[in-house]
Amino acid sequence: MTSKIKSISKFTGRLNKLRFNSLEKWLDWQESLHFTAIELGLERCRRVANNMGLLKPAYNVISVAGTNGKGSSITMLDKILRNANYKTGRYTSPHLLRYNERICIDGIEVSDYELCESFDRIDRARGEISLTYFEFGTLTALDLFRQHKVELAILEVGLGGRLDAVNVLDADIALITSIDIDHQQWLGDNRESIAREKAGILRNKAPAICSDDKPPQSLLDCADALGTPLSILGRDYTLVIGSSDWSWKTKNVSFEKLPRPMKYCDFQLQNAAGVLMVLEKIKHDYPVSLNNIKEGLNSFRLNGRMQFIPGKIPKILDVAHNAESVRVLVKNISKIPCLGQTHLLVGMLKDKDHTEVFKILNNIADSWNVITLSEERGSDAKRLITELKSLGIKKNVLEYTDVSDALKQLDVSSRLGDRIIVTGSFLTVGAALEYLDQEIT
User: Fold this and answer.
1) pLDDT tens-digit readout, 73-84
2) CA-to-CA distance for 215 and 219, rounded, in angstroms?
3) Topology, domain 2-298
4) How much is the pTM?
5) How does strand 245-249 pair with strand 238-241?
6) Is domain 307-435 classified as CATH 3.90.190.20?
7) Do 318 and 305 contact (CB within 8 A), yes or no?
8) What are 85-118's pLDDT values in tens digits?
9) Phi and psi (nearest 5°) for 57?
């Protein structure tokens, strides 16, 4: 007992010497440190990383960019590699319930204490250099991966690629998932310009994978110019979908009767196919067995992606927030039998294409339940309702102040056989998970 008290005292004493003594205070400060929430560019992050000696890590780097499917691909990779007993670091964003979700070592979230300690090291190393919230988080991931001596770091490129903070590190292998229209303000309003930004994570001679079976020409051109060996779904590797399983093959390797990573969700097979190609490319340094692969695919779950919450009125939670991801959501939902009505609960960010998303979602909607996201980038419910009305959607549209209020009312007003779909944003789904008291797994 005495040693435990001493340990707690040492922990508390160390925190008291930092700029802030809690994770919440550190994060609040980071949100106001830089003059804007998002500012693309590598100079600030690279200077601080260089000051900390983070630019030439001992671990190997797998960078993952794309419009949709990044989180799923990273989670599959992480599970399979951990099944083969490799020590992994995983960095993703945004989070659903806790900031700690963003940085995992061997599948386990890092602690508040570790984050605060790392924030302090970064704060000391940055001097007068201003950092965005995301840049601080990226540097923290790289710092903690070094502290924990991981063998492989799997990094999600948050926005774009070329000028994203994650791109301060050279990827040993890059994975680019599906490419579609999103973040137009920063990346451009067409697939060619967006793909060009995503291609910024490619490196000379370092292998790269694309799990989009119709990649824009600009991506291919960038790979050719860099001398990057790029493997493309449908050209260099293929998948065949069966009724209950699927197969994957390249010119020299094939896997049959693989488990589907998620029921009703064929799109995850596209992600899984890209993951298997990454594993094929790194197999000489990091071999995995077919059993490792099958166990990883079979156990794959990711909160907020077609997440089913059973109950009297079942709920499906999905973070779809752009046209492509919503199109996939609608396709998946349409495969699931429903005896009653489908009630949509939607909250979105201001910078998303609400009109296109609403057009697609209307194919499954019997009622619309719209909420205000109170965060700075969140859209007001009244604005969303105005946009629904402009599309001729006026009946069965209700406004709520927040997710918990909407779910309470829907649980009362819905009938047996109905279902509730929560979508539109990570913030919306995260609030639903919190209200429903669902843990992140």
Assistant:
1) 999 999 999 999
2) 7
3) UDP-N-acetylmuramoyl-L-alanine:D-glutamate ligase (3.40.1190)
4) 0.91
5) antiparallel
6) yes
7) yes
8) 999 999 999 999 999 999 999 999 999 999 999 9
9) -70, 155
